Structures are given as C-alpha cells and as structure tokens.
C-alpha cells in the first residue's frame, strides 16, 4: 500500500515543531505535496531546535562541552554537527531536514540520488537554500530560509522577512514577519554570573572570542585520548 500524502504531511508538521517560522513551515509542506505529485515520497525529519537541543547535539562525541554549567559530552557516539547553540538556523525556526521514505512510508531512504536531488530542486524553487550546494561540509538533508540574516543578527533579535512562493509567481508575493518567539533568548544581563565568569576565563585563556551572556555553550576544551 502506498503511503498517503496526509500521513507525510502530518509527520512532517509534527517534526518541524511549534517554533518553526510560518513561511518555512508552509513552504516545507508544499515541497512535500509537489514531490508527492511526482511520485517522490518525502518527509521532514526536523525543524525548530532549541538551544539546549543544539548543545546536546554539538556535545556528542566531544569532551569538555559546557552548556548552562552542565556537561553533555557523549563520546560513545560520532559527531553529528559542527554548529554550536545559536550557530544553526534550526535554532531560529528557519531550517528543516528531510529524507525520502519508501513507497509504504515505513522506511527511511538516505541515498542521495536523482529523487533526493529533485526534492532539493523543488525546495529551492520555493525559496530554500540547499545544504548540498555548500562548497564544503555538504549537508544533503538540510534546507533553510535565512532572509539574508546572520546568526549574530538573529541572536540579537532581528526578525527575518521571508517571501512565500507557495502560490507561484502569479499572485502578489506575501511578506510575512516572523511571530516566532525564541524562548531560549535571554534578556540583556540576565545570564548566570557563574557562566559569565567561565566565559570570560575562556576568552582570556584561549582567545575564544565568545559572547559573555551567561547562557550559551561558549567553548570546547578537547583532549587527545
């Protein structure tokens, strides 16, 4: 039995989370629909990711990773990301990951073949940038819409203005300003003083050049085993 479109849409919407930008969400679901019309069954596997979730991912396979004074190191697993908290567009609800599913919808297919690249092309036609186009450290499941903003701008509270291309080019483009509230973003000078002290020490000893905000993972002290 062929997997139903509604099943893929429901799974995708759930996996993107409530913190996803509305234009990103709309465009991602439209990508799933258009791919389905071409006989390609695709599902969104991830969307919004909190700073704490990002810290856990970054800490995997690393030593001395500090986040809010806690150690999330897990050396039993391979490293899965080079992005620290605040350095991934997932943290701002502006990125998604996808994969192909089998015809019955029961198995994930991770082969980057013609179908995979066709989904990326559909995504790009809807305004996404594809990680498979990166010059280095290619991330084939990754798609994002940044509105031209950097991580620093997003962390400072600048909201992206994204243009929805779901309805094609005939209707006038609709600009939607993000109404997503990033709950992990701290108020100015509200961070933990102990963490700030650690951050200042790391800056002075290792020239880490990190923000002293008392909240986010700031530095990696790695030991050779």
Q: Would you identify the regions where 5 or more consecutive residues have pLDDT less than 50?
A: 169-190, 216-225
Number of helices: 6
Topology as a string of helices (H) and strands (E): HHEHEEEEHEEHEEH
Averaged pLDDT: 81
- N/C terminus separation: 50 Å
Tell me the CATH architecture of the domain at 5-49 and 88-181: 2-Layer Sandwich
The class by helix and strand makeup works out as alpha+beta
User: What percent of residues are in strands?
Assistant: 5-15%
Largest sheet: number of strands, sense, barrel closure: 5 strands, antiparallel
Number of strands: 9
Which radius of gyration do the C-alpha atoms yield? Answer: 19 Å
> Which term fits the overall shape?
globular
Q: What is the CATH topology descriptor of the domain at 5-49 and 88-181?
A: Muramoyl-pentapeptide Carboxypeptidase, domain 2
What fraction, in percent, of the residue positions are helical? 25-40%
Name of the CATH class of the domain at 5-49 and 88-181: Alpha Beta
Organism: Peribacillus simplex NBRC 15720 = DSM 1321
Protein name: Peptidase M15C domain-containing protein
GO molecular function: peptidase activity
Pfam family, one: Peptidase_M15_4
């Amino acid at each position: 039995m062929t997997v139903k479109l509604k099943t893929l849409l429901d799974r995708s919407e759930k996996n993107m989370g409530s913190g996803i930008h509305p234009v990103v969400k709309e465009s991602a679901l439209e990508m799933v629909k258009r791919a389905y019309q071409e006989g390609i069954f695709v599902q969104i596997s991830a969307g919004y990711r909190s700073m704490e979730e990002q810290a856990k991912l970054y800490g995997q396979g690393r030593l001395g990773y500090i986040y809010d004074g806690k150690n999330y190191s897990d050396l039993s697993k391979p490293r899965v990301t080079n992005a620290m908290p605040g350095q991934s567009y997932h943290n701002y609800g502006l990125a998604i990951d996808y994969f192909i599913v089998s015809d019955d919808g029961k198995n994930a297919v991770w082969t980057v073949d013609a179908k995979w690249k066709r989904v990326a092309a559909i995504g790009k036609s809807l305004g996404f940038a594809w990680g498979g186009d990166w010059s280095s450290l290619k991330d084939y499941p990754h798609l994002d819409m940044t509105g031209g903003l950097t991580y620093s701008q997003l962390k400072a509270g600048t909201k992206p203005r994204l243009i929805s291309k779901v309805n094609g080019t005939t209707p006038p483009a609709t600009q939607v300003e993000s109404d997503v509230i990033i709950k992990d973003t701290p108020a100015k000078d509200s961070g933990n003083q102990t963490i700030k002290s650690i951050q200042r020490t790391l800056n002075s000893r290792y020239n880490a050049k990190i923000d002293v905000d008392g909240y986010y993972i700031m530095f990696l002290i790695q030991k050779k085993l």
